[in-house]
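Bench notes, afternoon.
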Amino acid sequence: MSRAVIVNADDFGQSVGINRGVVQAHERGIVTSASLMARGDAAHAAAAYARGHPGLSVGLHIDLGEWVFRDGTWVPVYERVNREDLRALETEIRAQLSICRELLGQDPSHLDSHQHVHIQEPVRSIVDRIGAELDVPVRHRWPRLRYDGRFYGQTGTGDPWPTNISTARLMELLRDLRDGVTEMACHPGYPGELVTMYDAEREIELHALCDPDVRRVVRDERIELIAFSDLRDRKHAAYMASR
């Protein structure tokens, strides 16, 4: 089998600096898709760019809050909704979906979430249901799409790990891709505008994603760079061929 990878930039629209990084990583690097934080301060600008550049597939990055590891436990930087209130939870997720649709002028190409909150209940069932309604992939939940989150500049407790987002590490991860389609997550950007647990790491990621040596590895390894929209097109082609 051949190897294909969707390089997806999370947090699109969270800040001007992150938008700059995502755009640069798409235009000069290997990013093919992005996930929009619909309530982000720079969401309108992110969506405007996406509308003018259809080669960048854009999904919804569901944002229910952010947590940071301090004194041996995870504490909130902010929370948008009480995750124990099922009605409020679904209302907030669907509100973000509605904003995303309005900004993009179409449905999101995929669904995922900030800090992966959708892989645990009760968020998981809500997002699975919305993914089925839209017929789009949900990160971690779509059997035909493997997720690779190893390109990340912190440990599981938030300690800096810059060597894990170096150019050398990214090339290693690309060479290590398995057959089939993989989504590789990344977080390019320019730091300094946000109170966030992931800041200085973004520019390190950006340099790696735009490094010509990374492009060379993609070419030499015969890896196909695709976007989420390509999955939809492939699914349609397979359906037509079976008729």
